[in-house]
Every structure is written in structure tokens, then in C-alpha cells.
Design goal:
single chain, alpha/beta, D-Maltodextrin-Binding Protein, domain 2, 2 domains, 6-stranded mixed β-sheet, 5-stranded mixed β-sheet, about 45% helix
Length: about 325
């Protein structure tokens, strides 16, 4: 066979291979259309232990998505230090829509800069599906502390640098970073005392073992209303519907202060766009249901809806914000 025949043969083989590849791709795309997806159970990975706030949101949403998609949603709690393991699992999963992640500000927007080897990139390793809810963080003090406002607390901390302790949940959590942001914005010296969870933190706050704390509102709301704890401010840009009489920290002398927890749904990068669109559509419908709103409100949150693009922009904005603080303060966790 001469060179010309060889060239023609290679050309024909190349054309046939291209046609076959296109056919396989078309068949795959057809199989993954929203009308056919899903055909089996979906795993929703939660990078926190069962029973916590993130797990609660996952189960609320998972229950509704299971009905809408007519497939079981299996909650897979992959708890680890820093809530990293679950995110790694999803980042490396097959991008077919059958492994999803319950995203959280700490996991997605704080950990990548705080931890030396987090093992995933929030922008390139995930396909954002949509936001679910925001959970407010409150700045509270024990009633024995002689302060009635954020300004009073800042003044006391400046008079007695290093003496006051701020209780927070684990290093890298939203509460922990809120405390770091507060110290930096107010230019004060306070000692951060991290706890393993919001429950133990709430208990020690009630006992006065930590005079100041940043905690999510759900585990402390009843004690705030009963007067056992005093809420000085919330870290939202707007006042919480749970405590409308409590000002934001931003309106209490630290303009622009914001440290909120946002929850969302993500898939591995490369997940077909039509699957992401289907999941976004069902997620938005679920979050708008009255019983979902009330159940999330009972856990101290407010529902959010978004497009995948809006969630991606939120991740980018939050990651840049927290990464800047981590660099400024030289924070690092191995």
C-alpha cells in the first residue's frame, strides 16, 4: 500500500471514529435529559455530623427533592475536621448528577484559604446548583458582663486588651471567622476560644464561662428571649426576623460588617448543564414551599433562591472576602 492509500485509510478511520464519538456523546446526552434523569437514588453528601444545622437543612431539602425527582435522596454524613472530607468526595465523584454536596460557607468559601491542603478548588471543582438558606450569627454576652451594646463591648475590650474571651464554634467555622473579623474591624484584642460545636458553646455561654460569643441563633434563641443571654448584634446586613429588635453589627458602629452562613447545593464540575438546570428548578420550587420556609425558620434561618450563576458569584465573592482576612491575619490550619 502506497503513502497515498495509507493517508486515505487514516482519513477514513478518523472520520468513522469521529462519527462514533459523536453518536456516543449524543446517546449520553439523550440519556441524561431532564425527562430521564434521575433513574436511581441520589447521594447527598453532608460534610458535618448528623443532627447539626447543616444536616437539618440537607434532610429538609432532600425530602422535598426526593418527591420531586421520584428517587430516593440518601444523606451521607462525611464529618471530618474542618468539614473537608465530604467536599473532597464530591469534587472527585463522577459528574453524572448522582452525587451532590450540601455546600456551606465554611466548607466552600473559608476552608480553601484557611487550610494548607484542602484538596479542592471551590471555583473549578464544583458545579453550583443553587442557594438554599442563610443562617444568621449573633454576637451575645452573658448578662453579668456590664455591656448593653456593641459599642460598649468594644470600649470594654479596648480598656482591658486580651482579657475578654470570645467563644466560637470550631476553627474555620462561620462563627470563628466572624470573631476574627470583629476583632480586626473593631481593632481590639480578645482571646478566641473555639468549641467543638454550637451546643457546647451555648452551654458555656449560659454558664458564663465565656462572657462573649458568636453563635448561630437557633441553639441560643430561647435563652436570649428569656434574658439568660443578651444579644448585642447580628452579623447580617439586615436585622434577623427572629430578633427584629436587635441591631446589626454594621449599624452598631462597624459599617459593612457581615458574617453569615449560606447553604447551597453543588455537584461535581462537569455535571451536564441540563441536569444542573433540572436540579436548580426543583430546588427553587422546594425552597419556596411554606413548610420548608417554616422548618428552616425554626432552625434560625431564612430561605434563599438563586440561579447556578448567582450561587457561583456568591461563592467567588465570599471566598475572596475570607481569603483576604486569612492573609491579613496570617491564619493557617494544617
Amino acid at each position: 500500500m502506497n503513502a497515498k492509500d495509507n493517508g486515505m485509510r487514516r482519513l477514513v478511520i478518523g472520520i468513522v471514529a469521529a462519527i462514533l464519538a459523536a453518536s456516543v456523546e449524543a446517546a449520553f446526552a439523550q440519556d441524561m435529559t431532564p425527562s430521564n434523569y434521575p433513574t436511581r437514588a441520589i447521594t447527598l453528601v453532608v460534610p458535618f455530623p448528623a443532627g447539626g444545622g447543616v444536616d437539618t437543612v440537607a434532610r429538609i431539602v432532600g425530602e422535598k427533592l426526593s418527591v420531586a425527582l421520584r428517587q430516593q435522596i440518601i444523606i451521607d454524613n462525611r464529618a471530618s475536621g474542618g468539614a473537608i472530607l465530604g467536599a473532597r468526595v464530591v469534587a472527585k465523584a463522577v459528574p453524572d448528577g448522582y452525587t451532590l454536596l450540601l455546600g456551606h460557607t465554611g466548607t466552600i468559601s473559608i476552608n480553601p484559604s484557611l487550610y494548607a491542603n484542602v484538596g479542592y478548588d471551590p471555583r473549578t471543582d464544583f458545579a453550583p446548583i443553587g442557594l438554599i438558606a442563610t443562617i444568621p450569627i449573633g454576637l451575645v454576652v452573658h448578662p453579668s458582663l456590664p455591656v448593653k451594646s456593641v459599642a460598649d463591648l468594644i470600649a470594654l475590650a479596648r480598656r482591658e486588651p486580651g482579657r475578654l474571651a470570645i467563644g466560637t464554634s470550631v476553627v474555620g467555622s462561620g462563627g470563628y471567622m466572624a470573631a476574627e473579623l470583629f476583632k480586626d474591624a473593631a481593632r481590639i484584642d480578645m482571646t478566641i476560644v473555639p468549641y467543638k460545636g454550637t451546643g457546647p458553646l451555648a452551654n458555656d455561654s449560659l454558664g458564663g464561662h465565656v462572657p462573649v460569643s458568636f453563635n448561630t441563633l437557633a441553639p441560643i434563641l430561647a435563652n436570649i428571649l428569656a434574658g439568660n443571654l443578651r444579644a448585642l448584634g447580628v452579623a447580617n446586613t439586615e436585622r434577623s426576623t427572629l430578633l427584629p429588635q436587635v441591631p446589626t453589627i454594621a449599624e452598631s458602629g462597624l459599617p459593612g460588617f457581615e458574617a453569615v452562613l449560606r447553604y447551597g447545593l453543588l455537584a461535581p464540575a462537569g455535571t451536564p448543564k441540563n441536569i444542573v438546570a433540572r436540579l436548580n428548578r426543583e430546588l427553587r420550587a422546594a425552597v419556596e414551599l411554606d413548610d420548608v420556609k417554616s422548618r428552616i425558620a425554626a432552625d434560625g434561618g431564612d430561605v434563599l433562591t438563586s440561579t447556578p450563576e448567582e450561587y457561583a458569584a456568591d461563592i467567588d465573592r465570599e471566598e475572596r472576602k475570607w481569603a483576604a482576612l486569612v492573609r491579613k491575619l496570617g491564619l493557617k490550619v494544617e
